[in-house]
Amino acid sequence: MYNPKSLKAEEFIDNEEVLATLAYADENKNNLELVDALIEKAKLRKGLTHREASVLLACPDEERIQKIYTLAEQIKKDFYGNRIVMFAPLYLSNYCVNGCIYCPYHLKNKHIARKKLTQEDIVKEVTALQDMGHKRLAIEAGEHPTMNPIEYILECIDTIYSIKHKNGAIRRVNVNIAATTVENYRKLKDAGIGTYILFQETYHKESYEKLHPTGPKHDYAYHTEAMDRAMEGGIDDVGLGVLFGLELYRYEFAALLMHAEHLEAVHGVGPHTISVPRIKRADDIDPNAFDNSISDEVFAKICALVRICVPYTGMIISTRESKEVRGKVLRLGVSQLSGGSRTSVGGYDEPEPDDERSEQFDVSDQRTLDEVVKWLMELGYIPSFCTACYREGRTGDRFMQLCKSGQIQNCCQPNALMTLKEYLMDYAAEETKAIGEKLIEAELKKIPKEKVREICIDHLEKIEEGIRDFRF
Ligand code: SF4
Ligand code: SF4
Predict the structure, then answer these.
(1) Which stretches of sequence are listed as region Disordered (predicted)?
(2) Residue 337 Cα to chain centre, angstroms
């Protein structure tokens, strides 16, 4: 029985409710009066329900789809301006006891190189990431009780935060590890993590169980209820995501929004971020096994709808997507982007030899961070290395309130300019630097409060003089 307030996975992601939603969407997809009314409702920037959003996803009318794109672009501009927050993934270990059939790290894959970073390796990898200019990492690890216990993850987080190389520092570590206990989430919270990210992969229980035939991840309820345990453990910024291409995308989309509604109903705060990965070719994975892959057009529509249905939630896109696709969906609402990524265990400090490859998926966007930064600026975006919010205690509902009132804009714009300035001073190529300096000059004018603008100008001068880490 559907109940968004229930703590039971099968009640807040009730299969019957998802199916009823899809039927409702099918019945109404050509009801243009309703579609128009929903687009009007979305303009209020208060979001749409999973049922409403599903009607828009099913609607084939080209003119309405364009209206959705235009609105997504506008909401993106209003809430996020032209800023894009940069991050990089860091794979700690690919030892894994699970049997996920779409991932090359599954237990039975005997020919992928198994690796686990030592603390010395982490120092090298993080130094290399700092030398690229990264300030924000998402750490990733397979699930393995003896190779990757929580103590190992905590030690890695400690090491990462402790490395200060030249002007570099990792200021925010987001964590993407397997579903775990409230006690372990509390430990992660105490270690000072940013967002806890866990992809659902698919919300369709039957498919989920088939795709995860062995290992602890097989337990659908334990996995789906992980965010509730994370929040109980004190982590109030959580990141959702599904792996598009595993189940039918309309099912996933409706259920993803139901999950967001559940978090809001129970904890008073929705997801901090939503990721939209699509399945990619990888070692020991048969791409033909998944016939639900989605086209670039559908992918763009999903991104636009996420933007208008959950306007306050950040949207993340990885290097799984090509430069072209990233360029398109950036406009439609993506707020965070990885750059210069390696999806192998190690590989930032030294490239992996061909016979020891350990990557989780093929990277479509192979450009360096500096190339991505330059490209973003040429498209008119401000690459931001800001990590201020959680360091200032702006998390969970406090963060959401600032977002909803629009006040966060007084922090995001100056923080983006100051962290970009740090990047330009410490890491950028000459050409990137020249473009960036001009951009900062132009963008300073867009800081609404004069006092904030003055402080920002002062900080920018101090950054020139070598001082770092200013924030609002
Ligand atoms: Fe392990 Fe995660 Fe890969 Fe599954 S998706 S095999 S849990 S690393
Ligand atoms: Fe994100 Fe907060 Fe920085 Fe804005 S000020 S970019 S919301 S961390």
Answers:
(1) 338-362
(2) 8
Q: Which residue has the higher pLDDT, 402 or 39?
A: 39
User: Is the beta carbon of 202 within 6 A of some atom in ligand 1?
Assistant: no
Residue-averaged pLDDT of the chain: 95
Whether ligand 1 lies within 6 angstroms of the CB of 96 is answered as yes
Q: Which residue has the tokens 């990462």?
A: 160
Kindly state if the Cβ of 420 falls inside 6 Å of ligand 2.
no
Query: With a 6 A CB cut-off, is 229 part of the ligand 1 pocket?
Result: no
pLDDT interval class at 432 (50, 70, 90): very high
Ligand 1 atom at minimum distance from 96 CA: 1
Closest to 230 (Cα-Cα) out of 257, 256, 266: 266
Instruction: Check if 246 has its Cβ closer than 6 Å to any atom of ligand 1.
Output: no
Cβ(258) – ligand 1 distance below 6 Å: no
- Checking if the pLDDT of 440 tops 70, the result is yes
- For residues 140 and 402, give the distance between their C-alpha atoms in angstroms, rounded to a whole number: 29
- Using an 8 Å Cβ cutoff, are 145 and 126 in contact? no
Q: Which of 120-134, 192-206, 360-374 has the lowest mean pLDDT?
A: 360-374
Is pLDDT above 70 for 289? no
Does the pTM of the predicted model rise above 0.90? yes
Cα–Cα distance, 169 to 273 (Å, whole number):
23
Residue nearest to atom 5 of ligand 1 (CA): 103
Calculate how far, in angstroms, residue 106's C-alpha sits from the geometric centre of ligand 1.
6
pLDDT of 291 higher than 70: no
Residue-wise over 366-400: b if at least 16 C-beta within 10 A, else e? ebebbbbbbbbbeeebbbbbbbbbbeeebbbeebb
Give the DSSP letter of residue 380.
Answer: T
Overall CATH class of domain 77-366? alpha beta
- pLDDT tens string 54-63: 999 999 999 9
Structure tokens at 399: 């963060």
**Contact present, 7 and 32 (Cβ < 8 Å):** no
Of 87, 157, 92, 192, whose CA–CA distance to 129 is shortest? Answer: 87
Are 151 and 183 contacting, i.e. CB atoms less than 8 angstroms apart? no
Ligand 1 pocket test: pick from 95, 98, 153, 360 the residue with the most ligand atoms within 8 Å of its Cβ. 98
